[in-house]
């Protein structure tokens, strides 16, 4: 039995064919996303190894009284004047940044003091209003109960019949007292809610300000440590930065008479190369996902157009069912999805050998996902539908 992606011969099977290819693409994207996650995890891991191995190499040099191979010493000395200048500039930057952050922290402290002072100022005011309203509310409640008792006495027995005017006036007075009591209750609740709202807002503001204060305090402490290090040993910091930059991009080992140090550099180079491989793999995988997702989006729009044509066909009985025949180049283009499946199913294997994975994917794709060929595929599909419509429906 033919699959939904084997081809199509009419509008209904063309819709199935488009949706089937999109389903394959989405399944591929899921698998490729897992590979990307593996690549990202390994990249971070190798980046950390690279940083650790650099630190170990620099520590070795510092621990051996800055003894180092001649090639490295020459490279450091060549860079040292520039590094010293950078560190001098960094000193000035640090002092400015610390001054600015301390000013920000003082501003935050002032905002906090003002918010708390406002809360304290509002508290007695609201307390006074609350106590006054409580007295008024108590009086209104007593007045209501008194008038309610009067109304019940007036209306007792045949009072509602013999004294209708008095009963009505008594009831109206009672209802007015109830309204006054209700209004005072509402005003009292409003005052109490005002305090709750103000307190909550002040607490929220205080929490935000405290977080901002802590962040700036931590940053000030970090910058002061950096400033102290530069002030104590600017030349050592300049040498260390020069070493770090040189070792960071080291691509091949230059032998020295220090095998222990050479072994450390081998570790640096291996970690650097692995980081680069995974960084390239992440970029390639992201590009692949973007391309095939773009194809699926285009197919989805194509399916909407085909559905519109089919709806018109179904609406008009006089229209014959369109007969369609896909161009072989279109089918060959979409055979790519099945070819990619075995390459992406084992994310662990792909992640262990990113260069091999990239090469296998590149070989399978060829030039099919070039912009030219993607456009050509969609144009061929669209032309097939347009020509069939014109030829068979007139």
Question: Notable features of this structure?
Answer:
mainly alpha; 394 residues; 2 domains; 11 helices; flat
Question: What does the model show?
Answer:
- With about 400 residues, the protein is mostly helical.
- The protein is about 85% helix and about 0% strand.
- It has helices at about 10-65, 70-155, 160, 165-230, 235-250, 260-315, 330-335, 335-345, 345-350, 355-365, 370-394.
- Helix 8 runs antiparallel to helix 10 (about 355-365).
- It is flat.
- The two termini are about 35 Å apart.
The number of strands is 0
Number of helices: 11
| Strand/helix succession | HHHHHHHHHHH
Strand percent estimate: under 5%
How many domains would you count in the coordinates?
2
Distance between the ends: 33 Å
Structural class: mainly alpha
The biggest beta sheet is recorded as: none
Helix content, binned percent: over 70%
Give the low-confidence spans: none
Oligomer: single chain
> What Rg, in angstroms, do the CA atoms define?
40 Å
Task: State mean pLDDT (0 to 100 scale).
Answer: 86
């Amino acid at each position: 039995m033919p699959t939904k992606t084997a081809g199509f011969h009419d509008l209904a099977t063309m819709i199935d064919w488009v949706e089937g290819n999109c389903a394959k693409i989405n399944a591929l994207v899921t698998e490729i996303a897992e590979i990307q996650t593996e690549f990202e995890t390994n990249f971070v891991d190798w980046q950390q190894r690279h940083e650790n191995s650099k630190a170990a190499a620099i520590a070795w040099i510092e621990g051996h009284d800055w003894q180092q191979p001649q090639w490295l010493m020459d490279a450091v000395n060549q860079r040292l004047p520039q590094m010293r200048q950078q560190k001098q500039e960094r000193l000035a930057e640090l002092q400015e940044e610390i001054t600015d952050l301390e000013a920000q922290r003082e501003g935050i402290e002032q905002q906090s003091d003002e918010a708390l002072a406002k809360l304290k100022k509002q508290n007695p005011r609201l307390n006074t209003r609350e106590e006054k309203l409580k007295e008024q509310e108590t009086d209104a409640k007593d007045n209501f109960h008194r008038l309610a008792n009067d109304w019940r006495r007036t209306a007792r027995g045949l009072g509602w019949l013999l004294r209708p005017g008095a009963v009505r006036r008594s009831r109206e007075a009672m209802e007015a007292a109830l309204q006054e009591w209700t209004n005072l209750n509402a005003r009292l609740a409003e005052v109490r809610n005002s305090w709750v709202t103000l307190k909550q807002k002040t607490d929220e503001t205080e929490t935000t300000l405290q977080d901002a204060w802590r962040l700036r305090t931590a940053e000030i402490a970090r910058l002061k440590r950096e400033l102290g290090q530069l002030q104590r040993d600017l030349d050592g910091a300049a040498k260390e930065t020069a070493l770090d930059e040189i070792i960071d991009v080291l691509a091949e080992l230059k032998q020295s008479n220090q095998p222990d140090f050479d072994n450390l550099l081998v570790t640096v180079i291996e970690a650097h190369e692995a980081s680069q491989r995974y960084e390239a793999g992440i970029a390639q995988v992201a590009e692949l996902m973007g391309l095939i997702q773009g194809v699926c989006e285009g197919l989805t729009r194509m399916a909407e157009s085909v559905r519109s044509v089919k709806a018109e066909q179904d609406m008009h009985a006089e229209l014959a069912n369109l007969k369609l025949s896909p161009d072989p180049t279109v089918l060959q283009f979409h055979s790519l999805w099945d070819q990619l499946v075995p390459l992406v199913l084992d994310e662990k294997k792909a992640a262990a050998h990113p260069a091999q994975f990239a090469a296998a994917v590149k070989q399978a794709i060829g030039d099919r996902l070039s912009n030219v060929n993607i456009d050509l595929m969609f144009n061929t599909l669209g032309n097939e539908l347009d020509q069939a419509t014109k030829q068979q429906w007139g």
